[in-house]
Each structure stands twice: as structure tokens, then as C-alpha cells.
Amino acid sequence: GLQPREYQLNVAESASAKNTLVVLPTGMGKTLIAALVANKRLSLYPDGKVLICSPTRPLSAQHKKSFEQFLEVNADEIILVTGKVNPIDRIELYKRAKVVIATPQTIEKDLETRRLNLENFVFLALDEAHRSVKEYSYPYIAKRFMLQSKNPLILGLTASPGSTRERINEICNNLFIKNVEIRSEQDPDVQPYVQEVQTENIYVELPEEFQKIKILLEEVAKDDVYW
């Protein structure tokens, strides 16, 4: 019964064609975009599997609930895998799962030990993709996915890709990204869904302890400016 918004459909259509980094503010439905692409990939490759990675166990559990609603897949085929699950049990879970939602460190370990092979996976979504730098697990997983998958497609999701072009380029290179989709509240396909925000300023008197801290912080800020 969910009705995707115009910008979600537009971004999902673009992300279904090539490896894509999606940059959307928090609360604009990045998870639904991933689900739209996942549904399309599973429709195109009925025997394929999907891997969704997110940084923490609570976030992964939240994604499991969301994808159970969004995906055209039986709920018992959507499996949550974290380090809390016995490594031997994970082998069987990977075999019977249609959709694997997991923490990246767990996937990295299982790829290294060959408990998992991504040959039949047709879609990899990486939440909070701005972490895809240095020694984090995402670049390793993306590389193995591109090497092993017969039909690879990668989607990176983030609200904050970084403030420098170098940082963004590093993320794109590490995830084999060929396309970047960015939306803000000013974009034409987003504006119809933006609600006017009403603000009310309430001024309070700070306790004496807070006042002392405020003075110290202001002094530190001045030192940085003068330096």
C-alpha cells in the first residue's frame, strides 16, 4: 500500500541502471529507494539474492522490519545476520535467504573465511556509505561483490557524503560508483513533499555552571580565531 514519491521513483530508476551513490537528507526515504531497486533486481533475476549492509545491529534490525514491508519477498526469506549469530549457522542462513541484512564486519569475516560467496547476489546496498573509506568493511565487500557476482549492482546511501570533493571521489572509487543522485528540499521533484516548518524560539536562563562552561568555550573559540 506504500506510494513512493516522485523523487524516490526517479532516483530508483536511475540507480537501477548503474552503480549509484544516493545523497538524501535524513527522513527522505532512502530505505524505500533501496527497496524499489531491490524489487526490480529480483524481478529481473528471480533466482538472485540481495545483500543489505548497515553499520550497527539495531539499524540492521530496523532495516529488516522495513524491508519486510517494502519487498515483494516472503518475510521468512529476509534474514538478519550479525556477529551474534553462530558462524556455522550463518552458512545455512545464507543458503536459504533471498535477502540478507547484515552488519558489514560480519559479512567481511564470512567472505574472508569463504562461508559466504556473492556469486548469486544481484544487488548490494550499503547504508551510511560515507563510511566507505580507510579500513572500513564496505570497500572490501564492494570489491568482492564486483569480483564474485554474475550480475552486480551497487547502491550507496548517505545523508552526508563529506565536505570535500576528494572525500566524495574516494567513496565513489571504493564502491565502484558510476552515478551520483543528489536531492535537496529545493529540487523540483522534492518540493511538493516539503512541509512548512514553524519554529518558536524559547529563551531560558542558563544555570551558573552552564554560564561558566559557556565562557570557557567562547575563550577557546577566540583562541582559534586569533591563531
List keywords for this structure.
single chain; 227 residues; alpha/beta; seven-stranded parallel β-sheet; 7 strands; globular
Describe the structure.
This protein has helices at 6-15, 30-44, 57-70, 87-96, 104-112, 137-148, 165-174, 208-226; strands at residues 20-23, 49-53, 78-81, 99-102, 121-127, 154-158, 179-182. It has 227 residues and is an alpha/beta fold.
Compute the separation of the termini in Å.
Answer: 58 Å
Order of helical and strand elements: HEHEHEHEHEHEHEH
On the 0 to 100 scale, the average pLDDT is 92
The parts where pLDDT drops under 50 for at least 5 residues are none
Protein structure class: alpha/beta
| Biggest sheet: strand arrangement | 3-4-2-5-6-1-7
Number of strands: 7
Q: What composes the largest sheet?
A: 7 strands, parallel
The amount of helix comes to 40-55%
Share of β-strand residues: 5-15%
Gross morphology is globular
- How many helices in DSSP terms? 8
Q: What is Rg?
A: 21 Å
Describe the structure concisely:
Helix content is 44%, strand content 15%.
